[in-house]
Amino acid sequence: xxxxxxxxxxxxxxxxxxxxxxxxxxxxxxxxxxxxxxxxxxxxxxxxxxxxxxxxxxxxxxxxxxxxxxxxxxxxxxxxxxxxxxxxxxxxxxxxxxxxxxxxxxxxxxxxxxxxxxxxxxxxxxxxxxxxxxxxxxxxxxxxxxxxxxxxxxxxxxxxxxxxxxxxxxxxxxxxxxxxxxxxxxxxxxxxxxxxxxxxxxxxxxxxxxxxxxxxxxxxxxxxxxxxxxxxxxxxxxxxxxxxxxxxxxxxxxxxxxxxxxxxxxxxxxxxxxxxxxxxxxxxx
Length: 285
Description:
One of its GO terms (molecular function) is delta(3,5)-delta(2,4)-dienoyl-CoA isomerase activity. This protein is α/β, with parallel strands linked by helices. The chain has eleven helices and nine strands. It has a six-stranded mixed beta sheet with strand order 1-2-3-4-6-9, with helices on both faces.
């Protein structure tokens, strides 16, 4: 069966459309979804392509593996990357590594850059790089079976792809976030809920949490795409700016967005007690 967004898929990142205007993105690299450079680069490219699709309104990110979300980075790949930075000069070697890290960060930040809300649905093991990925998503669900861990200190490095940048801002317990990052100890879905890393724990495994995420994505997809896009933009701006700065930014943003035809369409539908129908954002970007 052909899906409208299957052309976006890559070798390890598969894209389907199980609901109208909803893209389901699944990680699929056997045996444990461990990330090597081509995998994480592809993930970034897929989300950048999704952002160009005018008919998508919400995205669910999950694993195609029934047992786990991801074991994190492919340790063999990490060792190979460090060995490949071959300049004998420490400064030049540092610049090479800096470029590599920045490119890696940009790939994972594509989830945050995506103009549509991204809902991640985790289950089983979600270690290391999984936390960087989860933290870049807008809405985060976990199956009750999920085991998380910020594993980087166990392999001799500080997490550098987004966990330490985002975790203190998206969670409500600085002490617990620090403890988990310092110790690399596993924590379960209930503790992730306490931390604020996830907003919902779904009893069961992959199928149950993906179903819950798709239901939320379907609800979002029924809303005005202009309103949802703007809401994501303004929420991300608010996270990194003062209240006053965000209010100014919002005033400028909405001075343009309030001119949308989605507002009168929504008002008419409300008066008629009907669900409003909204058009796509426009031609493919």
